[in-house]
Amino acid sequence: MKVAIVGASGAVGQEFLRVLADRNFPLDELVLFGSERSAGRRYMFRGMEHEVKLLCHNDDFKDVDIAFTSAGAGISKEFADDITRHGAVMIDNSSAFRMDEDVPLVVPECNAADALNRPRGIIANPNCTTIMMVVALQPLENLSHIRRIHIASYQSASGAGAAAMAELQQQYKEINDGKPVTVSKFPHQLAYNVIPQIDVFQPNGYTKEEMKMFNETRKIMHSDVKCSAMCVRVSSLRAHSESVWIETERPISVEEAQKALAVAPGVTLQDDPDNLVYPMPLETAGTDDIYVGRVRKDLADDCGLTFWLSGDQIRKGAALNAVQIAEYLIKVGNVK
Amino acid sequence: MKVAIVGASGAVGQEFLRVLADRNFPLDELVLFGSERSAGRRYMFRGMEHEVKLLCHNDDFKDVDIAFTSAGAGISKEFADDITRHGAVMIDNSSAFRMDEDVPLVVPECNAADALNRPRGIIANPNCTTIMMVVALQPLENLSHIRRIHIASYQSASGAGAAAMAELQQQYKEINDGKPVTVSKFPHQLAYNVIPQIDVFQPNGYTKEEMKMFNETRKIMHSDVKCSAMCVRVSSLRAHSESVWIETERPISVEEAQKALAVAPGVTLQDDPDNLVYPMPLETAGTDDIYVGRVRKDLADDCGLTFWLSGDQIRKGAALNAVQIAEYLIKVGNVK
Ligand SMILES: NC(=O)c1ccc[n+]([C@@H]2O[C@H](COP(=O)([O-])OP(=O)(O)OC[C@H]3O[C@@H](n4cnc5c(N)ncnc54)[C@H](OP(=O)(O)O)[C@@H]3O)[C@@H](O)[C@H]2O)c1
Ligand SMILES: NC(=O)c1ccc[n+]([C@@H]2O[C@H](COP(=O)([O-])OP(=O)(O)OC[C@H]3O[C@@H](n4cnc5c(N)ncnc54)[C@H](OP(=O)(O)O)[C@@H]3O)[C@@H](O)[C@H]2O)c1
Fold first, then answer.
1. B110 part of the active site
2. What SS3 state is found at A218?
3. Which amino acid positions bind NADP(+), per UniProt (chains A, B) (predicted)?
4. What kind and span of H or E run contains A131?
5. C-alpha to C-alpha distance for B94 and B72, rounded to whole angstroms
6. N or C end of chain B, less CB within 10 A?
7. Chain centre distance of CA B45
């Protein structure tokens, strides 16, 4: 089993190295790719150094079985053919192919089997905010069909990449030192602020990030659910959080929802407000599950329920979800 | 006109001093009150020093016309009789009396005239998050009755008082200096975090802060509207933000809503996403209006609309709103 990581130096790429090691992923050979910026750099994996190769249009992917790509949508599009043409499965973290009809969009807890039907050899990993939400929604959908979703997100700096996270830390340092604040990775200063924009605006007034939540949720869950999202950048480093309201066909009680969430794969129910226990990004960072708490009735909707969730968007929202897809393919013997 | 400020040293109290000066409030004499902690301290107002007096059960409020109180609900309850028994109007910023039937709960943009009917001499200033929301809702309610509200808040550290705001700054300093982080004013570390709890929990799983949004909105707007709120503390210093979804009786178009908001008292429409213009706490801090942007259709509700707002919760959410109530009473000749 030969595995490639494209974008190894990035926030998601680095997490791939950790997740593959942590889970003892059954690989025999690992190759790393990047641009000129990181080519030649060495990263440790299972006690051995691996050098980053320059990504080029050549036959480097000839013997690769699984390629995890996280170098942005442009690179994914440009190199998809190089990566897949010898038979490698490309599990792509970018938004390049997510809504393509002939590319499955997979969250194993929801629709693992969709990964088996991939005419182009590409499987798309959904948007991080969407992955986190659907992992929590699936057990509730199993109780009663979800008709609408309202969701407000609290997304961390690292969602915009490794350099963006460093910029937030630098901003607080600059403020402490009484220096002017550097703003380059975000549209505005993020330190001591909240930015109600993630990705670019669409004609309907929603951002791309918000429309991903609408479209990708429907595709992953095979559902006609309607989702209105507000995606907001806040001053946490790692792990996103979300406030979610759902309307189901029949009313679900809080107890019923909690019971379903407590046993759902990929979910940890963390709902003990009397002891000030609820999910928070500072604690969910670096962990695998989606943490759900503050489950309660929607006071504005008799068929409604609301809850809060938090999870590491670089783990389950990106690297971990992609690795879980690969593990599923290996388990069912469907890699090549 | 003799005016008193109870809790003058606090976040809201200090803002009273600024707002009264900025607006050239027609007062002849100003008296400040506090506990032992601040008694004797001097604050400048219109170029003159004013010494904080110790708040006691005595006749200090004998000649006071208007008392602005912001020293917490316990103090308001304990001293309401001392303050009002000689005829002073008590405009109270705490939650002590807000839901009492014989105490009007007033946001001048919504229900100014309610302030005229105050059998106990007390007028309550609503919860800050609620004030900010209803200022933006009123012009939309005037177009079509609002039936439901879903709201997720992004509340700044100063909402918990002056010391809490200082604690957040200290936390970032400690992190920069590699020291252990002090946590005392918030239930958890707030720096680089998001805390999904403001105030204490109620049996229905909502916090008091969230239930205030349900109950106070109905009282202020004389409405049967149902509101499901999620109140969250984020890492901004001053000014709260809110993501709001409303369902109206008839559908309101985005253009219609924007037009109504653009001319609404107390509202500044700041809705130009193509130029990355939308309300943010870093910019709305220290200003008077509620800034509304990102107005768009609710994709999950044909009669729904959604928008984002931000405003200074110590100004319009507290001191400014109270002063505006007083200005209204003066204007209609209804102080004593
Ligand atoms: N961060 C998240 O939370 C998250 C979550 C889900 C999905 N994603 C998606 O994952 C992708 C990567 O995100 P990230 O946060 O890891 O970004 P990042 O930290 O900025 O890393 C970007 C990576 O892409 C590589 N790259 C850029 N241009 C390249 C080129 N021409 N050839 C080869 N490699 C190139 C970079 O390598 P060099 O260092 O050599 O330039 C780097 O390894 C994006 O599509 C993003 O939308 C991110
Ligand atoms: N911060 C906000 O955004 C906001 C918004 C709306 C409403 N409010 C409400 O306004 C009130 C004050 O909030 P804050 O944020 O200004 O709090 P703060 O910064 O902690 O200030 C509290 C004030 O209360 C005074 N005080 C405390 N105990 C007292 C006593 N026994 N006798 C006399 N004065 C006493 C303090 O004076 P000493 O310094 O002498 O102790 C101080 O001036 C609270 O009810 C709060 O819920 C706050």
1. no
2. helix
3. 9-12, 37-38, 158-159, 180, 313
4. helix A128-141
5. 5
6. C
7. 22
